[in-house]
Amino acid sequence: MTDKPRILIVGAGAIGSFYGAILKRAGCEVSVVLRSDYDAVKEGGFRFTSPLGELSWQPERVYRPDDTPDAFPDYVLLCVKVLPGVDRAALVRPWMGDHTGLVLIENGLDIERELTDAYPQHPLVSCLAFIAVSRTGPGEVHHQAYGQLVMGNFPAGFDEHCRRLSGLFREGGIEVNDSEAVVGERWRKCVWNAPFNPLSVLCNGADTLSILDAPGGEDLVRTMMKEVMAVAAADGYPLPDDLVEKNLAGTRKMGAYKNSMALDYLNDRPIELDAILGNVVAIAERHGVAVPHLKTVLTALRIRYQ
Length: 306
Hints:
By secondary structure, the protein is an alpha/beta fold. The protein has helices at 14-25, 38-44, 88-92, 113-118, 160-171, 182-202, 208-213, 217-234, 243-254, 260-266, 273-287, 292-305; strands at residues 6-10, 29-33, 47-49, 62-63, 75-78, 101-105, 124-137, 140-153, 176-178.
């Protein structure tokens, strides 16, 4: 008998399966809800390559989205893309028991509110993943670098659910940074995401080094990052002055990386345009902050995807 919580991952793609592997290493019972990779994972589990060593794992149970749970989990990890027309509250509804906590490991800004509105009595833990990981085939995942999480309650605080989960992730072998102000941390991540993800699509799925090394590429990324910083400050979340240069140095150190939006574009999947860039521009307009480069990139992508 274990005192470790039962975990269910909704959206067990590259991100979800990685953090499922970490919780499995920590001794949790981890199940998944899958659509496209159901047969492959049911038969052979998740197969990983990773600098962290052997992360391949077999879920306790593999469900389809319309299945009925054998038992409600202690925590649902929601790791799906934040896309227009995707009702994330409905995706988790079949799996939410009276005492089930909801954990978001998703990209974007201002993405929690629809879940807290739908489940006001359930604890919500919001996480940002700093990781280079990609799905390479059905049930096959390549983890390239990093893996740390920033975690906190939405809109603020760090409760006993955060403490329990952060301890488990650390036990599984990754770093977790506790945050009493997770919205500010989402702004911090937007400084990287808002330039690199959309530019990768405009540049035909280019990797990070190709963007930076193109004539004027690094200057454009730097300018877009500074625009995000200005919006964050206006929204009440000022960020360190050296964050832009640290982001650029860290990106070069990471090597040629195709981010999630680049991979979605190359595989003809929808992109998280509003969650990653559109919401930043909307908040900028609300505060009267000029963001001409961010707005130009957003408009170009909206023309492309209309």
